Description:
Elements: E1 3-9, H1 17-27, E2 33-39, H2 46-52, E3 56-61, H3 65-68, E4 75-76, H4 78-83, E5 88-92, E6 95-99, H5 102-113, E7 122-125, H6 129-140, E8 145-149, E9 157-158, H7 159-164, H8 166-171, E10 174-177, E11 203-206, H9 215-222, E12 226-228, H10 231-245
Parallel strand pairs: 1-2, 1-3, 4-6, 7-8, 7-10, 8-9, 10-11, 11-12
Antiparallel strand pairs: 3-5, 5-6
Helix pairs in contact: 5-6, 5-10
Amino acid sequence: MEKKFGLIGMTVSHSFSKSFFDEKFFREGLRDYHYDLYELKEIKDLKKLLKDNPELCGLNVTIPFKEQVIPLLGDIDATAQRIGAVNVIKIKDGTLLGFNTDSDAFLESLSKWFPNEAGSKALILGTGGSSKAVQEALKKLNIPFQIVSRTKGKGNITYNDLEKSESIISESNLIINTTPLGMTPNNNTMPPINFELITSNHYIYDLIYNPARTMFLQKAEMHNAIIKNGLEMLHIQAEKSWAIWNN
């Protein structure tokens, strides 16, 4: 019996999720399982997608729908509710069940890479669903953080505040980009921070994985920072998604 899974988002053509699951299904001999990319203009288009694809058993959710999808769910996992963002939907008997695998995937990936020594501080660039998952992980790791946004009120501080106070970047040895700036096809964009303040003491994590080295990571590397992209996190969260769909 055919079973379908997929990714919903406003722009999904850049995603590696399809190739990841296609290879997984092939390796495991799941010939009737398929994974597709579904671009939605608005979250309300999800209802038509589900009606047109009754074989759908599960969905991953990406920008900008991780928060917007919550009102359409029949139920939500306690962790996803606490985070306030959903990146995995399990479809069971026509009911949408929401989960968040981003936070645990980021935590697992970060823990293997970042030394988290005493006095570590983080800057989270962005305030969306991915940012909320990162915030949850940093709380579990007891890493104090500030959230940077373009507009006052959304985060703790704005990019203008970063310009005015050089010490914020200098004292934050972990900087995480959770925005889509720099993602294919918009490779020439990046968060507006002062890279002259970046040193070899900085760990720079970009949740984007396509391209593998965003302009943000390239600039940081030029100032001798230790860099990491989001590909490992994608693989971990995808496996966690698969576990949810098959539970």
